[in-house]
Design goal:
Elements lengths: L2 H11 L4 E2 L4 H13 L4 E5 L5 H12 L4 E5 L4 H10 L3 E3 L5 H9 L3 E3 L1 E2 L2 H9 L5 E3 L8 H8 L7 E3 L6
Parallel strand pairs: 1-2, 2-3, 3-4, 4-5, 6-7, 7-8
């Protein structure tokens, strides 16, 4: 799939549950529950022990029936390993242009973390599909996103960290 197709799939699903568990086995169980609950997207974080193994098993089990992503991706090497394990999109907690470049090289979706206006713009200019504003809740939540959208109406943003209804 191309990055546009991946992003369209995620947008249609409307939610991406983040799987952050204590083992690869519990991560796979969580993804099973997510899928059985009708949600067709999930992100397994690299903080899960054995996360790469979990990505591989989930990708084998669900194939293109589930949009699988890797979260807490800190560098381009990890992004590449996750891609080979079956991840179609990547979410990072911070801005690292080389990770964005890796994802774009293979037409995958990348949502790098950014907080300041400079980081948000840098991520967008580097090719981010969506900029993850993190930790959004700590700096005003929806009000902060609204403030960023003033000068950056063209930048797609996802708030994370302390977000609720």
């Amino acid at each position: 799939m191309t990055s546009k197709e991946i992003l369209a799939f995620i947008t249609e699903v409307g939610i991406v549950p983040v799987v952050r568990t204590s083992s690869a086995e519990s991560a796979m169980q969580a993804v099973d529950a997510i899928y059985n609950g009708g949600i067709r997207a999930a992100e397994i974080t690299m903080t899960v022990p054995g996360a790469i193994r979990a990505l591989e098993k989930v990708a084998d089990r669900f194939g293109d029936r589930l949009m699988l992503g890797a979260g807490t991706v800190l560098d381009p090497e990890t992004a590449r390993i996750c891609m080979l394990a079956g991840a179609q999109f990547f979410v990072t907690p911070s801005l690292r242009v080389s990770t964005i470049e890796m994802a774009k090289r293979y037409s995958k979706v990348i949502c790098p973390g950014a907080l300041t206006p400079t980081e948000v713009l840098t991520a967008w200019e580097a090719g981010a599909d969506v900029v993850k504003v993190f930790p959004c809740g700590n700096v005003g939540g929806a009000k902060y996103i609204k403030a960023l959208k003033g000068p950056f109406p063209q930048i797609e943003m996802i708030p994370t960290g302390g977000v609720n209804l």
